[in-house]
Amino acid sequence: MLHLPPMRTVNRERSNPAANHLALDLAALRRKLSESSSGRQYWRSLEELAESSHYSDWLHREFPSSTLEEPEAVSRRGFLRMMGASLVMAGLSGCTAKPKETIVPYVQMPEAIVPGKPLFFATAMTFAGSTLGLLVETHEGRPTKIEGNPNHPASRGASDIFSQASLLSLYDPDRSGALTYLGDIRPWNALLNEIRTLLERQRLRQGAGLRLLTETVVSPTLAFQIRNLLREFPEARWHQYEPVNHDLVRQGSLLAFGRYLNTVYRVESAQVILSLDADFLSSGAGCVRYAREFASRRRPPEGETFMSRLYVVECTPSNTGTKADHRLPLRASEMETFARSLAAEISGQSIVAQTIPYAPWLRAVARDLLQHRGASLVIAGEQQPATVHAWVHRINHALGNSGSTVFYTEPTEVEPVDQLSSLRELVSDMDTRRVEWLVILGGNPVYDAPVDFDFAGRLQKVPVSMHLSHYPDETSALCQWHIPEAHYLEAWSDTRSFEGTASIVQPLIAPLWNGKSAHELLTGFTNEPERSGYDIVREYWKSQRSESDFERFWRKSLHDGVIEGTAFPPVSVTPKEDAAVAHEGPMSAAIPQEEQTVEIVLRPDSTIFDGRFANNGWLQELPKPITRLTWDNAALLSPATAEKLGLSYRISSTGGEHGQVLADVIELSIHGRSLRAPAWIVPGQADDCVILHLGYGRTRSGRVGSGTGFDAYRLRTSSEPWFASGAALRKTGQQFPLACVQFHHNMEGRELIHAATLEEFRQNSAFAQERNKSSQSLSLYPDYKYEGNAWGMVIDLNACVGCNACVVACQAENNIPVVGKTEVMRGREMHWIRIDQYHRGSLENPETYFQPVPCMQCENAPCEVVCPVGATVHSAEGLNDMVYNRCVGTRYCSNNCPYKVRRFNFFQYSDRETPSLKLMRNPNVTVRSRGVMEKCTYCVQRINAGRIEAEKENRPVRDGEIQTACQQACPAQAIIFGNINDRQSRVAQGKAEPRNYALLAELNTRPRTTYLAAVRNPNPEILEEEG
Amino acid sequence: MDGPITPQAAERRRPPVIQPGQTYATVTDKISSIVLVRPTTPGWLAGFLVSFALVMLLFYAIAYLLVAGVGIWGVNIPVGWGFAIVNFVWWIGIGHAGTLISAILLLLNQQWRTSINRFAEAMTLFAVACAGLFPLLHLGRPWFFYWLLPYPNAMGVWPQFRSPLVWDVFAVTTYFTVSLIFWFVGLIPDLATLRDRAKKRSSRILYGILAMGWRGSALHWHRYQTAYLLLAGLATPLVVSVHTVVSFDFAVGILPGWHSTIFPPYFVAGAIYSGFAMVLTLAIPLRAVYGLEGFITMRHLENMAKVMLATGWIVAYGYVMENFMAWYSGNTYEGFTAWNRIAGPYGPAYWALILCNVLLPQLLWLKRVRTSVPALFVLALVINVGMWLERFVIVITSLHRDFLPSSWGMYSPTRWDWATLFGSIGLFVALLFLFIRFLPMISIFEMRELVSESPAGD
After folding, report:
1. What is the ipTM of this complex?
2. Do A898 and B254 touch (CB under 8 A)?
3. Does residue B1 fall inside a structural domain?
4. Which of A825, A866, A933 to mutate to test the interface with B (most CBs of B within 10 A)?
5. Residue B302: which residues within 8 A CB-CB, separation 6 or more?
């Protein structure tokens, strides 16, 4: 399926498409030079459409200067640019109308570009210091879908919501498209001139007034460039800051080992795992890989050697917490006591105070860990203080886990720094007016810097400020220069994954909005201001590699998406004995006694992260795990805390549980700062703490994200970046409408999710099927015989971590529209696959189960019989097909669908106007009009493509050859799709498992999508205690 | 075939169906003068204008619907059907009384039907017209409504005949066609009377065309009677079939609260119930305004009240059985749906429905209530509301919480839903205003027959 063509480099000798374009350009330019008025219109329109720097490119080619471009660079860049520019041209003028301008047809078809046939290119996405290797599907030069790169260690073929949704960010019409100075559009050269002038001024003082502020830099090339610059200007400073950083992790390693080290886990080798507030299955570096490894040990009983046991201690339920066999809600500030007590328990000292209510639980966990020395794993959350990390390092060491489940490597950041201190330095320099020229490469510090830094106010004291960013955001508004940033799919770069493996980031399309990469901007600070990103990255790697055949290395690295042999080797270290203890202050011991104060815990948002994805409609509309909220954040409270405050909900009669909930607004005050936010009650959260998610309340994020949610950064100080005690909560009496897609988490006694313990499963492995037996083939008619392929799906509830990657992948693959908060509140969101979530057990600490629900493709489909026009019909391969152009929109099918997986276009939801969004769409999937029903098709376009390939080769479709988008994205490999007629296929084997059951089987719908029941592996010792 | 004759002795014991003292001339004068002589009164004008304003509201709502999409209504997932389907079933139900009165009571020789059948039939037509709007408008793409019809086309596609919505199309169009023909055939002798008595040339030409050359010859009468009876025979099964088919829309679905075999009889009874309530709602003001107490007597009102009482009990039986079966079946989903109707968020609608359709109509046991015009009028209105609520409860409460709790939701109508509902009521009333202004609202020739047969007319 994943056809990997070689890197598209074309030799100079061969006549290549770029050369043809070049010839045409020259002819056109001559015409322009000879004619004065008649050709003017033509040129003006082309200049308007193509990049402004285009013109200078032509001049360069016309009058070649001393810097001859690399032939590869010309072909690659030139080709992509022409592709991009011509597509933009077509897009800007609208797909339906013919463009007025003369367009240039292919004189010679570029090699390997077959219209209608997608090509896949390897690249990588970096954000917040972590990297995911990707394969990007392109159609005629347009990236249309992002998949994980099976070669990449962080991905292994899977992906996450951020990488999936970055496609929409690429085409976001709100991205900034113009370089501006004080709001006026300026050409690139004006900026270069300005930089040159400023550099000359700085040179006298060795750059003492120059400051660079970047996000976490994992790109070796970028660091190389910055260091070169700093070498030239020794007094200049480089600061790194991102709101969601790894400062505490770094400090922890400093405490434990005396230096910065990166921690890598081998989750698949761990039989007992304890997470201390770490959501390692769905957030943070390496989570995609960890989810896969974790899930591989949760498939009882066949094929795997053991089933792991997961303990989670956390303040609010996370995806990881829901997968726990035992979960302990504990406030974030009490984690240190827990870690310390556990360390004591492990080392046999037993200093756990008997007053700690969870003491028996802790002892049981400690015993379990000790029984699995070398095969256990303790993970601390990124937002936990350094001491917790230090304790965890010691515990892992004491358990003999380092070297088996925990590995330490050199940091993946090129220049690991304490980012908060780094920013603090910068801010104090700004305050004392020592900063004359601030260059901000990415990031949005005006919005997300700690509130006590008053970044916005101090930015005003900087005479010259430049901001490179994707959007004209809060920071851009306060900087003189705003430089549009190229998306990672538009620019060359490189990066490192969580365990060190480097990748080249290669662009797939020319910058749509004239963006520049940080590399290209920084090269403007050198004597070669016009060097392309390609040259910069390539030359860096040329300097790093000793291979005689660099070209081969380069092409292989681009093709594979990873640079072989760059993973960091494990470092053998021993934590200092007194590391954490020495650091342990009196404060940390005192915290558990402060029962009465309420604690505020800040977390990156699970969909829009730190706010950078605020303008991404796919992520905004993605229901957040646990709360199932979209478009807003809320102050999360435990049921008991909410009760104390007298908080409640009102389910609105519009949309109701599947749409709109009116939540009480509370006012949070801490240290003289206050914030109003709607309260949301989360069963399983620790008492007396409020969880706030960062990233909302943006004022200048674009049309999608501005004005959604409330800004938790306003409570975030540099001294207490992640949690702070002493908050006061007050009910305001106001209510706020929240868009919640699933408010009802009670199964109402219906057996929708079957779950058992490992013990129960061993006694009765077919526990999930007891209810289903009677309903097989209750029909007067003989069954339809499915000859050939019969598509089916199995979803493993035990594996699913609820990360939502499938939902966004489906949205991207199937051109699913975004409907907006108002429509979600009316119960009209459009996701074809949703992750239902049910709780079981007590309000204080329930078990939570995720259940991904796509269309069940019932063999006796209730939707089909009721459609009056035959718009939904059964295929010979057992698919329940939707015929969009036949649908008249009675919605009867949806009413009759017991799984409610059908989605209706109540309005014209698909944006048919915005040109850039047209480029994004999957050309093999209809863009639906209003009044039409739609639903999951098992990615029928992929099935057809796979079947055609197989038929061309006169063979049956191979198992695994066709992957649905949700399946491909799933990090936990919870979704298996294939031909159930093929007894050897993974899906057929999945259906033969004793855990297999059908949802609502008693209705005799005979769904093709079935589930594997959840099996948990609780510790008998704790079960006994809990009675 | 002879005209309907009833045993005189039986007739004498009951109150008369036509007041004593009426002659052929008085009947003809009285009824035809409403159309021909009586000037357009301010009252009529005001009433018509109000209803016409509502029609404009309806047109506005429809125009906006076509421009923006069906999303302007409150429908969503899971509640895919909202007011449109509620209103559709309600109007179709109202339309039942006309056919019942005209056809079944004709065949059963119930002479008291004569003075109310004409406007009951008109009411049927108008109600079915209102009803017919909704299935079209509620489509996502209404401009393709004709895809539900089996017509030869280049795509080579037929409707999907297993779908109850296709049956609906046939049932409702058949019903409308037959009702229209039945009503028009019934009008022909009266149109001839109007033609003959009209003073204005334009009226004479208009009524003349509509009268289709009726001269009142014995042959005409003979053929007329035959045709009328045949039509009545044809219309009779429709009374049962239309609402049976409409009930299939729900009963064929697998949704708890819909999937029920009791639906067909229960829907038909409900339809007759609401139809008679609507006839009463219209008859009472009409007889007061136009002084028709002589034709629509207390006997009519009381008979209709009795029909309502009887059908009301069938409906009540339906409610009881639904809940009983939900419990007796032991089905989790059915049980929950029943309980959710009673105690869920739409519980008030359910209890209002019980009050309107079951409890208050029990007053009709009392003769004092049955013979009190204001009481009957209020009760008729109450039943109209109750029957609308019944459809609301069936459609909405079944949909809003079905199998998977994750998909539970709520429905609330938007102002466009209300605009369409009141607009359709406006259309109905406006058509009725036009009808009473331009056509004889009581069958003149049948009343004349009654004069000849009634004791007072001897």
Report:
1. 0.90
2. yes
3. no
4. A866
5. B15, B367, B370, B371
